[in-house]
Amino acid sequence: MDVFRYLAPESVEETLQLLDEGAGGVKVLAGGTDLLVQMKERGLRPGLVLDVAGLHELRGIRMEGKYVWIGPLTTHWDLAHSALIREHGLALAQGASKVGSPQIRHRGTIGGNIANASPAADTVPPLVVLEAEVELRSLNGSHWLPVESLMEGPSRTALRPKELITGVRFPHRAPGSRSQYEKFGSRQALSIAVASVAVAAVQEKGRFARVRIALGSVSPTVVRATRVEEILTGEALGEDLIAQATASVAQQCRPIDDVRGSAWYRCQLVEALLARILLCWGEEWMAG
Amino acid sequence: MSLMGASSGRQVETFRSALVGQPARRVDGRAKVTGRAKYVADVGIEGMLYGKMLLSPHPHALIKGINTSQAEELPGVWAVLTARRIPGENQIGVVLPEQPLLAREKVRHVGDCVALVAASSEPTAEKALDLIQVDYEPLPGVYAPQEALQEDSPLVHRKGNLLTHLKIRKGDVEAGFGESEIVLERIYQTQRQEHVYLETIGTLVTPQEDGSMNILASIQCPFYVQKGVARVLGLPLSKVRVIQATTGGAFGGKEDVPSEICAFASLLAHKTNRPVCMILSREEDLRRSSKRHPMTITYKMGATGEGKILCAQIRVLADIGAYASISPVVLYRSTVHATGPYEIPHVRVDTYGVYTNNVPNGAFRGFGTPQVTFAHESMVDELAAKLDMDPIQIRLRNGLKLGSQTATGQVLEESVGYEETVLKGMKACRWELKRAANRRVSPSRRRGIGVSTMFYGVSLGAKGWFLDGSAASVQVHQDGSVSVAIGGTEMGQGAQTVIAQMVAESLGLPLERIKILPTDTGMVPDSGPTVASRTTVFSGNATLDALQQIKKKLKELAAEILAISPEKVTFRDEQVLGGEKKLSFDQLIQACYQRNVNLAADGWFVSPPCSFDEQTGQGNAYYVYGYGTQFAEVEVDLDTGQVQVLRVTAAHDVGKAINPQGVSGQVEGGVVQGVGYALLEDFIIENGKIQTPNLATYTIPTSLDIPQVEVIIVEAVSKDGPFGAKGVGEQPIIPTAAAVANAIYHATGIRVRRLPIGPEILRRAILKKETGNMRGDHR
């Protein structure tokens, strides 16, 4: 690892100022679980590292109007154990609980997971189905952008070099709605998703409404399975519907072959994971 | 125990627990769990330099030139070395002289080292590596043993790609197949496995004023390092002293490769006259260290309709990689164990070891046995299924017992616990109940149970007999404490504890009085390698030999003091007893010191004789064998192909278990590593390039992936072992993979003949079976 400049700004304002001055060569350090690996192992050489870990205003989970607000420095550990997150966005708690190992969950942050833009990120499919947005702030002001629109490609986001993620939020859980995240990795912990599926939906009189499905590790970015959403919408959950939904989910994937699994197998997995979620819901819906 | 007199029951228990056959607390345990143990990376010396290797980017290439001048000019760089600057011999091959320490004319795999750097910091050393220019001319390579045997194949070494061919010829296999009512032929394939010891290989070399070298290192075999470094530096063995640092795991991976790393650091230390520290990063370690040999095993077996096995014809094709490492000895073991623990009248085995431009394969727990065991235990299961027999019955019908003859014609005259491991394990896992139970736990989940058995020759056997002596040096100090220097190393397997227990038992002392010293070539004669599950027996017997000499003197003096005959003297609970009379151990030691009785002695033990005829493969291949049976229970997710191993019942005959707690630990660890081998671990090299260069891509089981393990210890004692012990280190990994594969078959009806049984492979097979059945029946 080369010599680099390191600063630990004391406020968001100061951070934005430094980002503005620093132009391209600045990297923001939160938990460091991705950045330090990139610097040590993959030749990333930022001129300046801004350590924002001390910015406590960017940490925490709370209700804010009709949203659940999450500070971008909130760790996966805290997300997984938050009663508020479990109540309003169970899929996100499940995703956060499946990141790496306990050590990584204690360090890694949701903001970092989003900014790193891995198609295999465990919090992103849940955020997408929960209709989450991120607040991007620069000296010129701030705006909210859906997580889904933020992802442009592997390690590429719409986040501009002078912008900082200063908030993450998603709407309260509507009555009758639920969400779930399922991941397949080669082992039970410390695994990068070979494929993952998140589903959020509302049950209205026994029928699906507002269905959102997101798939991880099967395309250059996390993607929505919009055709499957259409198939489910307005229908009652049953064996035929599950078969129909799982049969069409693979068409929405553009996976690659790599050492973790072939494209073919990833398609098999999203089918299996989607079926697992729908079967589980089916049993519970039937049970009342 | 009554001799403890007023002691409370609790103290009695603690005290007794130190003795042979009782669970003992690890003597090295406290320092390790509290973080006080010092590994090489924890030891710093002022002014030390950091050594780094420049490894080849090509699996096969000529070296046209190396320019080191830019690197040498970098501030902070103390030395840059290439093959031209070696004072001794540029040779590190432990079995065959075909492995240059530093590549000179050509590189043969992507771990070959072409240059070394010593610098005042690690980043500087890394930067210097970037400044070395090597002009390579890539050559066509050969990456699969099948291709390597073809006539027009590129040659890894001038002598040709076939390194070794080992044989067994027993009986008449053609006649055997003729008599057989059923003949099966199958091909089984196994993968490369990496050791993933917790601590990577590392060393700190300190040059001494007289030009000799002191080497502290994370190693298994200090005497190999001593010989390797002396050879490369052109020093006499007396000027190379190797001390083993606390070592965080080895599993065979620190048998020969550390000699290379220590030689690198020694070269740099010699050149700079400074201490040099060289600790491999995980990525360097994965690239440079040896692996378990991938093998293709073609198995043909014939039997009667009642399941009596009549003949086996086995062809083993092993990928050696670019250098021999200790492959000839590994493949000897594969050959001897190819038929498994069965008595088979007609046997033909041909084992071929073939060079490729892959990373060299070498020693790994089990040493060539896990591969052939996966084959024979799958084969026997397939045979049982064809004959509609219970897998246990076919094993009992053919298993080795007292008086049986092995494939090498060895008649087993003692210590055969095979049948007992089968029967005890079968009962403990409730085999019959589980076998008959409903396998369907949900529409997409199936359960099954499978069995696998093994035998394993203890120590080096006929091929390594010339290395099979071991030494120990024991000293009873004036205060009655005892220090013991042994030639075997502690690498986490619990060697120090069992040796301390033997001393405690022999002298009637508590464990706390015994100190086992770090293994040091300056203090103990060459005791061969710490491998092959031999330390308990070899260091143990050498220690007992030394103790025998000391006890003779102690008994004589005690007899004189107590006025009885020496043969009546015994040692127990810190007392020296002679009939009705007694004196304390401390009093006796005081008396010895007052009379100038020397209470230090050296012990020595040599393996009982072994033999192996190269032409027929007949002989007493190993002096004794351990036996084991494992039962694996699995749950298979049909939709994803993922397998969870729920429970493994492991019954192992280890002779006398000196420390049952340690035996259990070894068995549990072996099963975990075996589950990784069965399902997960695969060190992938494609066209000579490593595809799994780190622990994110080479995955091993985590604590959430491992089964519950029930350990059953069977003690068929061996007359040549200390207290009847045989050793346990390697056995538990050997049968696990086949037990898992057989359980998957029981759960799903799918037979997978290739390791690892990853979820994708299994899912493909499930799908194929479903479509073969016209329609899926699992949902």
Q: What brief labels describe this structure?
A:
heterodimer; A: 288 residues; 26% strand; B: 779 residues; alpha+beta; Aldehyde Oxidoreductase, domain 4; seven-stranded mixed sheet; 20 helices
Can you walk through the features of this model?
The complex is a heterodimer of chains A (288) and B (779). Chain A is α+β, with helices and mostly antiparallel strands. Chain A folds into two domains: 5-53 and 63-169, Uridine Diphospho-n-acetylenolpyruvylglucosamine Reductase, domain 3 (2-Layer Sandwich), CATH 3.30.465.10; 179-287, Enolase-like, domain 1, CATH 3.30.390. Chain A has twelve helices and 14 strands. Chain A has helices spanning 12-22, 35-41, 76-80, 83-88, 90-97, 102-107, 110-116, 124-129, 147-150, 226-232, 239-249, 263-287; strands at residues 5-7, 26-29, 48-51, 61-64, 67-70, 133-138, 141-146, 151-153, 156-157, 164-171, 177-184, 195-204, 207-216, 223-224. A five-stranded antiparallel beta sheet of chain A has the order 4-5-10-6-7. A four-stranded antiparallel beta sheet of chain A has the order 11-12-13-14. A three-stranded parallel beta sheet of chain A has the order 1-3-2, covered by helices on one side. In chain A, helix 10 (226-232) packs antiparallel against helix 11 and helix 11 (239-249) runs antiparallel to helix 12 (263-287). The model of chain A has no long low-confidence stretch (mean pLDDT 94). Chain B is an alpha+beta fold and 779 residues long. Chain B is 29% helix and 24% strand. Chain B has a seven-stranded mixed beta sheet with strand order 3-5-1-12-9-10-11, with helices on both faces. In chain B, strands 7-15-14-13-8 form a five-stranded mixed beta sheet, with helices on both faces. A five-stranded mixed beta sheet of chain B has the order 16-17-25-26-29, with helices on both faces. In chain B, strand 13 and strand 14 form a beta hairpin. Chains A and B meet through helix 12 of A and helix 20 of B.
